[in-house]
Amino acid sequence: MHIRFDQAELRYGDRVALKPLTLSLSEPRIGVIGLNGSGKTSFARLIAGLAKPSFGKVTLDGLDTVADEKAARAKTGFIFQNPGHQIILPVIREDVALGPKSRGLGAADVDRLVDETLARFGISDLAVRRPHELSGGELQLAALAAVCVNRPQMVIFDEPTNQLDLKNRAKVKAAIEGLVEQAMVISHDLDLVEDFPRVLVFHEGTLVFDGAGEDAIARYREIAGC
Ligand SMILES: Nc1ncnc2c1ncn2[C@@H]1O[C@H](COP(=O)(O)OP(=O)(O)OP(=O)(O)O)[C@@H](O)[C@H]1O
């Protein structure tokens, strides 16, 4: 998928979260790093159609995230910082089935697709669990299944390893590495994006570096002064 920002800006009232940005992206793995409040989530929300640019435009394969909202939104899936909040049905299996059902698939097709998707992420055994019975890493994978069942072209992760222990972190990292979909990863866990070909560094609402992972991390360390 080709993402294009054309002087796109995002304001919340008087506060400018993302200053006007012009940019093209199409790499299979894209990292986004920067200090707290630097505009990373705002940038990603514009891509996912969760926020509308206050000025300028964002297009995905030429589809405008505002004018072609529905088609553009279908291209991405967003995994929030607290994935437990996006699992809305009481049981994991039902939640993963929600997307295919709303697309009008018959019961047998929904069942098959849900089984395949749970198996793909190695969480078939979690099918009948409730979200509060899952660990942080399992919640990430369940949310990932619920997103990928809808066949987005890109999955956007907002701090996917936040608060995970080493074991769960490794599981989530492996799941991201194994994705056939494009992935954008916003992270303070720099190891996650170190090998990415393209990593964006934001600072105070501005894109201040755009390049390979190692170089981006070096730039971020300069900004952070450590
Ligand atoms: N809904 C909102 N209303 C008002 N201001 C907001 C809102 N969301 C974000 N902001 C502000 O916009 C700026 C950028 O926030 P954003 O969440 O994009 O940063 P971030 O880099 O993702 O931060 P973090 O690493 O802490 O998640 C911050 O100053 C933040 O306070």
Automatic annotation (TrEMBL):
Where is the ABC transporter domain positioned along the sequence? 3-223
User: Which Pfam family would be a valid example here?
Assistant: ABC_tran
SMART domains per the record? AAA (SM00382)
Keyword ATP-binding in record: yes
Alphabetically, the GO molecular function entries are: ATP binding
Swiss-Prot/TrEMBL keywords: ATP-binding, Nucleotide-binding, Plasmid, Transport
Checking InterPro entries in the record gives: AAA+_ATPase, ABC_transporter-like_ATP-bd, ABC_transpr_CbiO/EcfA_su, ECF_ABC_transporter_ATP-bd, P-loop_NTPase
Family label: Belongs to the ABC transporter superfamily.
Q: What is this protein called?
A: Energy-coupling factor ABC transporter ATP-binding protein
